[in-house]
């Protein structure tokens, strides 16, 4: 879990200055990270099934990370 959090932070920092497309790019990046982890765990679900199950996770995580970036930018 710590590794995933580090990957999410790295993704977020790489998109810090791209406010217009950031949430969409975060969703794509989060999806890529999670799919890679599932592959490492030899998940046997089809890609469509995985996306159906995790689509809201992609969105909610992206929105949360975007909020974190906005708040951390105001503090800096």
Your description of this structure?
With 76 residues, the chain is mainly α. The protein has one domain (20-75). It has three helices and no strands. The protein has helices at residues 2-14, 22-40, 47-75. α1 (2-14) runs antiparallel to α2 (22-40) and α2 crosses α3. The longest helix is centred in the last third of the chain and has 29 residues, at 47-75.
Overall tally of domains: 1
Q: How many H/I helical runs?
A: 3
Q: Uncertain regions: pLDDT < 50 for 5+ in a row?
A: none
User: Helical proportion?
Assistant: over 70%
For the CA atoms, what is the radius of gyration?
13 Å
Shape: elongated
Mean pLDDT: 95
Strand content: under 5%
How can the largest sheet be summarized? none
Note the run of SSEs as H and E: HHH
Distance between the termini: 27 Å
DSSP, total strands? 0
Judged by helices, strands and strand pairing, the structural class is: mainly alpha
